[in-house]
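Reading group handout, session on sequence-to-structure problems. Before we discuss, look at one worked example. The prompt was deliberately terse, the way you'd type it at a terminal:

> structure ubiquitinyl hydrolase 1

The input record follows.
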Amino acid sequence: MDPVSTNLDNGAMDPEDGSEAVADLGTRLGELQMGGGGDMLIDDYDVVDEKPDVAIITPDDSPEEQEPEIRADDYDAMKLRVLPKDADLETDSEAVHTWAIDGWRHLEKKTRGPKFECGGHPWRVLLFPFGNNVDFASFYLEQGYEDGDEKAPEGWYACVQFSLVLWNKNDPSIYVMHTANHRFNAEESDWGFTRFAEVRRLFAPQWDDKGRPMIENDAVNVTAYLRVYKDPTGVLWHNFLNYNSKKETGMVGLKNQGATCYLNSLLQSLYFTNAFRKAVYQIPTEAESDRKTANSAWALQRLFYMLQSYEEAVSTQELTASFGWETKHIFEQQDVQELSRILMERMEERMKGTDAENALANLFVGKMKTYISCINVDYESSRIEDFWDIQLNVSGNKNLDESFKDYVQVETMDGENKYFAEGYGLQDAKKGVIFESFPQVLHLQLKRFEYDINRDAMMKVNDRYEFPEIFDASPYLSTNADKSELYVYQLHGVLVHSGDFNAGHYYAFLKPTANGHFYKFDDDRVTRATLKEALEENFGGDYAKLNGNVGVRNPYTRTLSTKRSMSAYMLVYIRQSRVQSILHEVSAVDTPPHLAKQLSEEREAAEIRRKEREEQHLYLSIGVVTEDNFKAHQGFDLADWDADEATDSTPKVHRVLRTSTVAEFAKALAESQRLPPEQVRLWVMVNRQNKTIRPDQPLSEPEMTMDEAYSKYGGRDKSFRLFLERASQIEGGKPMWTDIQPPNTTTNNQPMLIFLKYFDAEAQALKGAGHIYVKKQCKVAEMVPMILQLMGWSPGSSALSNGLTNGTPTPPTLALYEEIKHSMIEPMKPKSTLHQAEIQDGDIVCFQKVWSEKEASGIAQAGGYTDAKEFYDYLLNRKTVSFSPKFPSESESEIFKIDLSRKMSYEQFSAKVGEYLQVDPTHLRFSTVNSTTGKVKNPVRRNANQNLYQILSPQFGTYSNNNQRDDALYYEILDMSLSEMDTKKGLKINWVTEGMSKEESFEVLVPKLGTVRDLHQALQQKAKLDDETMQNVRIYEVRGSKVYKELFPEDPVAMLSEFAGLYAERVPEEEQDADRRDFVDCFHFEKEPNKPYGIPFKLVVKPGEAFKDTKSRLSKRIGIKGKQFDKIKFAIIERSIYSKPTYLNDDDKLSTVIGSPDDQLGLDHVNRSKGTGGKGDSIFIR
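And the output record:
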């Protein structure tokens, strides 16, 4: 097999040489098969090869030219055909190599051809003559590096366009070919075609009616055509497996939380505006409390520093949490311009009074003048305003210059539209906008999304719109502007949207340095980009070449289109004369020291946690309760093992090596208690059947490993808990463990470990007092002297009655209880033995002083418990309830928590809250809390038969009763008692101002037997309205966003439901003297009258008035003007469910077309208050 190899000169070919080549490879890759592993290569190409049936008719007098037949041995001609050149890529080298294959039937299952060179790298053809697990001959191109001396260099790769041509060596007109391109590297060393040609056909008597077979005399040739392309971006044909943005570009991306790609692209743009980053770093945040969640400036500083120093993509969760965003906001794409402005406002607020004050204005703020200048007289009205960005029209404009010309276009005011100039009357005038200055960093918002009046929906404008790399803004400055410094800008960033209005993706092309390259920031991936990718490919418009295809499939909408779905929606330009200062490198000096310190500590802690997770199998988690924990604990058992917050009573969880011994662990614990190791002992704690956790037996084998101890004594729930006992008796320097008896001691009278709790009725506290050892056969009464001695209440003698002896107070009388389990506290009989009382190791005995009737009465009157058993019941039913003001002020001290009993009645817990707030409890009203929104749910009604548990956790009811918090209530301090309130009726009324565009809600109380006049007075008091305003206030009831009826002062309020929709407004001046019969009810709807929304209103009808003039009054009435008002259609609609709208023209007269008092005027326009097309509510940053 003698190879015939032809190597072409390195370098790019003349573009004209490939003029006949097919431009788009994508349509020719349908039969591509993948690498030596034998799996089929399936790529998701954008170009869809779907052609309609077309009849091609060629006139007789102009016969269709036949393409000349190419022979496989004409390498130059064949190369032009099979390797069409990509004009966007630069060729590094080319090669043509032919392998003459002989003895096909005797080849090995996997055969490699001879090596040849292209681009300085070895290559060869890999052949499976009888198929790679298929009935087809399989051919692949393979890089020729071998293991050993010829091993591929570290990080080697090559971007290769190649074609393999199999041809009959005796008749080169017989051939079959396949073409592909691939990024070869050490991991993907071969690529090609598993189903190159069917083996049966290769040996058939003739190939495609050519008269002879493809493989003749067991021989055939295969020619490999290679073109190695240069890869300026480093990601040509990259599959991005194991791609490292930091390693490849020195920069990292931002993680997408769900639909936050728009936020990521904006944040990267601001981050790489280095002067902005420095300004944010100057905001003082080192003294902030709860910085992670409450302060967006602190969170933005952290995010920027992470982008600066981290090796992997950074999460924006901390930042969005500081904005106050919830999950629903994360999955809503918001308006980038609005987000940018709000973010700037928040940062400006934080910069006031600091070194960074005015830093953002100096960067981003320019000035524009809005003017009206008279033509025939010397008069001009103008105002100069600041702007942070400029919104430019895309529709109707071809490029940036045309958009600016459109922006500053002068409108002539003449004819009926003359301008009234003060002192000159009506004058012809010119109206327009001109710029006085542009900022150092110019943000241009391209209006890619516009309202389509024909479709009645927002649509994306995909028209071609060009923008330059260098832009001169001086032609759009006023003649008086300071032009001493050139207003020439260079492109810094292109923010791109791919998709349509309802679905899509955002990413950015940014140029981090003044003279560097553009990079593409696509969420967590950063790649280098070419200038064409950053500019031309984001102009929008039609695709250049579709090769007869229907269109290109949008990956986000899955629809075909001939127009590009990716286009720029925001441009960032930096003034050339300031670019060095704006993009000056951010150094360690510019970074707040406390920021670097804290993030460094967090990374160290994260690394420790990561290491702990990796080594978790080597360790045990062991909870240890000490005597100190027990004494600090107020509750059941020895300690609270499931506490939400760590306190002095919370047992500490230790991470212990499984191979360490009991003695070693005990020694470590002793050192933490500052005790000698021999003075501590560990007891195994067990889960009893009554669901208590008590010490059971000491760990008596010090050399046992902790893993063995866990296997032997660990709980079924995989927990391992221990009690650390300190020796109470030391003799000769050695601890004396009371339960360890001399040999031959009877076992039925062993000392037992008993824990003691003291219920202090005066302090209303129940805490651990310590532990004692008592023998089984001792009587309960014999424990009293031990308790008295432990508490320091007695010189050592037992005393079971109160009184005085020789002037010395006698010890108090004690009552003893056994804490069997949470819900079972039983008094102990003094004469019973501990054995008879079934006491064992680890049991808990509670004691209390016995009070006289007078003492007990005083404690009870103070709201306390005098009996330990009652107090245990309180603990069992204890509920910590959070109380928040229903109408909060700025003081956070109004939010508080109180421990209450679930068994408390309404009167009892309101008394506790009143005591805390120092207000009369009869003036308190409570409301439940919605667990989903955190807002007020329902008022709590007083009911003598209902306790706190039933109020917080309704047992029987609908879903609406269940989705409420069981640990929180809102409270409201009333001006009157609840009894008096029972005579009142609660109503909600909306006060409408500013042309129906603004409303404020008030909850008012009026007498149940009162009139609407009382409602007027209550509104005046709540809304703080003056008497003059109240003389012309109109109140009307609304149902289903339509006026139901107007309410007059003498109407009774009893007819109003407490859920009635009530609206109040100041009657417009033109309507104050109108007759009630001259009004028409108006409402808003979208397309169909049965879809009303918004605030309805009344309008006075003027006899004979053309509707054109009525519309002028309507515009003023509802506060909508200009283009937005022009989109509204008006119709007369009867007050019935199925009525059809009759739309009005400007020449119609409302007084004529209204034929019935039931006729209403409908305003048909888009409901912009609802979410549309995945767009959320108005964005906010708290």
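Points for discussion. First: The CA atoms of residues 907 and 921 lie 8 Å apart. Second: The longest strand covers residues 1088-1100.
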